[in-house]
From TrEMBL:
<dbReference type="InterPro" id="IPR014718">
    <property type="entry name" value="GH-type_carb-bd"/>
</dbReference>
<dbReference type="InterPro" id="IPR008183">
    <property type="entry name" value="Aldose_1/G6P_1-epimerase"/>
</dbReference>
<dbReference type="Pfam" id="PF01263">
    <property type="entry name" value="Aldose_epim"/>
</dbReference>
<comment type="similarity">
    <text>Belongs to the glucose-6-phosphate 1-epimerase family.</text>
</comment>
<dbReference type="InterPro" id="IPR025532">
    <property type="entry name" value="G6P_1-epimerase"/>
</dbReference>
<protein>
    <recommendedName>
        <fullName>Putative glucose-6-phosphate 1-epimerase</fullName>
        <ecNumber>5.1.3.15</ecNumber>
    </recommendedName>
</protein>
<keyword id="KW-0413">Isomerase</keyword>
<dbReference type="InterPro" id="IPR011013">
    <property type="entry name" value="Gal_mutarotase_sf_dom"/>
</dbReference>
Amino acid sequence: MLPIEVNSAEFTSIAKNEYGEVVESKISDTFSELILSHELFSAKLTLHGGHVLNWQPKGHDEVFWMSKKAQLENGKAIRGGIPICWPWFGPYNDAGNHGFARTSLWQLGSIDINSAGIKVELVLEGEKRSESWTHKFKVTQILMFSNSFSQQLEIENLSNQDFQFSNALHSYFSVSSPENIAIPDLNSAYFDDKIKSIQGCTPSDVFNCVGPIDKIYHHNSSMTMFDKGWKRAIEIKKSNSTQWVLWNPGKDIAAGMSDIHQQGEDEFVCLEAANTNWVIVPKGEKVSLSQEIQVYKL
Ligand SMILES: O=P(O)(O)OC[C@H]1O[C@H](O)[C@H](O)[C@@H](O)[C@@H]1O
């Protein structure tokens, strides 16, 4: 019997029709990305971390920033795009920052290409993934790429007791400069300043997003980020997330981060739809949260 022919090319088409195509590109022996093409947008994602790497709606520039020094390797967190921070946000016990979802290999559930865009479903499930968080769970991530973008997480508790999680959709938005960014919707929100370790700060105007800035805003509706340099606005709607996290490391902290290229901190602002406090999911139940992003020219 002849051996089955394996497609040894670096690029392998995994779904295609008259509206678009999804191609797998092997970056290394252990890391590959999925390249999505469609007349309304282009985008890239990877199963490592269930991570959206970029999305560019037609007629606009890239929406998400990616570090030129991002570690595209099995088990590493990727600096840029949208890391999924889950089942915890920030540090937790000795288990490191932001949970295991962003460093785990997700499974490809389904791909649907149609005239409106490309829908991709990714799944992460398991039990005892971390000594600090041992519950049995299933997370389904539903991504809809089009001239807008939406990302939904369905978090299912499959264990025989209630569990809790915190999370963030840690979007790195590409900007002309953090100096040019205004987010007027934040002006009226109470916030915790993580750098100064002060909680419950009274609302104050956000004139720019120059780092170091690391704030948790208690605000559960939409945000619009205005970039006066690139004359574009990014609107982010979210559901079931009670906070927004605003982060940029600034020059000195970024200089100590091996996966940010020189002056990379001048190219992005993170605005993260988050639940920084624990959310309880009763046993056998499901919680869903999402964000939806739209880009406008000013
Ligand atoms: O370096 P990472 O683990 O990816 O975390 C990057 C940043 O994520 C969030 O925005 C947190 O609020 C910051 O405190 C943290 O520094």
